[in-house]
Design a protein that fits this description.
The protein is α/β, with parallel strands linked by helices. The protein contains 7 helices and 6 strands. The chain has one domain: 3-Layer(aba) Sandwich (Undecaprenyl pyrophosphate synthetase). α1 crosses α2, α3 packs parallel to α4 and α5 crosses α6.
Length: 243
């Protein structure tokens, strides 16, 4: 259940549409990713202002390695540059960074940047920002099962849940996908079991506070039953309702 007041505790976002935003403007695709960083800044500020506890964003999927090599290398460089630029402000704002995903295949430079950013913000508590980078939902389930098997532990639902890469936060209440696509694209497959889904036609660089509020407003209109009937949901408050 979400807290009273209608706010989801944990919002997760598939930030889709950067490349299409750039193409529409006859710009290189990387320009769209740079503009997408500004949208992420806006979204972080909005979540802080609305006192959302956890924001998880899908920054680079395990399938994104199949994109053109120059775009992949540009994304890697953009990540390193963004970390150096953004971490001081995130530290000031009370944001704690977690990078979630498979670090195998990432350069030493990128891995060092991720480690340093996590360490620098480790004491912050106003907002947990999970950045899913080189992440896939199937990878997450497989690595959790492999870890349990290596430890000789029985593979139960609870054990798997605790071995997931996102075990440090509650499952998302609301998953938003921008860009007009109607799929999860291998994002938080395990954790999405009871999340409310909101699909926005806006390309990610155009996503703003008003669209975030529209998603939250839609979330509040849904009845969250978790397998129960409507009659069993006793006097739910705003945001404490979905199917």
């Amino acid at each position: 259940m979400t807290p009273s007041g209608g706010l989801p505790q944990h919002i997760a976002i598939v930030m889709d549409g950067n490349g299409r935003w750039a193409t529409k403007r006859f710009l290189p695709r990387l320009a769209g990713h740079r503009q997408g960083m500004e949208s992420l800044r806006r979204c972080i500020r909005a979540c802080l202002e609305r006192q959302v506890g956890v924001l998880t964003v899908f920054a680079f999927s395990s399938e994104n390695w199949n994109r053109p090599a120059d775009e992949v290398s540009g994304l890697m460089e953009l990540l390193v540059t963004a970390l150096a630029k953004e971490v001081p402000q995130l530290l000031k704002d009370g944001v704690r960074l977690h990078f979630v995903g498979d670090r195998a295949g990432l350069s030493d430079k990128v891995c060092t940047g991720l480690d340093q950013a996590e360490l620098a913000t480790a004491a912050n508590s106003k907002l947990i920002l999970n950045v899913c980078f080189n992440y896939g939902g199937r990878w997450d389930i497989a690595q959790a099962a492999a870890r349990l098997a290596a430890q000789g532990q029985p593979i139960t639902e609870m054990a798997l849940h605790q071995a997931m890469a996102m075990a440090h936060v509650p499952d998302p209440d609301l998953i938003i996908r921008t860009g007009g696509e109607l799929r999860l694209s291998n994002f938080l497959l395990w954790q999405a079991a009871y999340a409310e889904l909101f699909f926005s036609d806006k390309l990610w660089p155009d996503f703003d506070e008003a669209e975030l509020d529209r998603a939250i407003s839609e979330f509040n209109r849904r009845e969250r039953r978790y397998g129960q009937t409507s009659d069993q949901v006793v006097s739910p408050g705003p945001g404490q309702k979905a199917a």
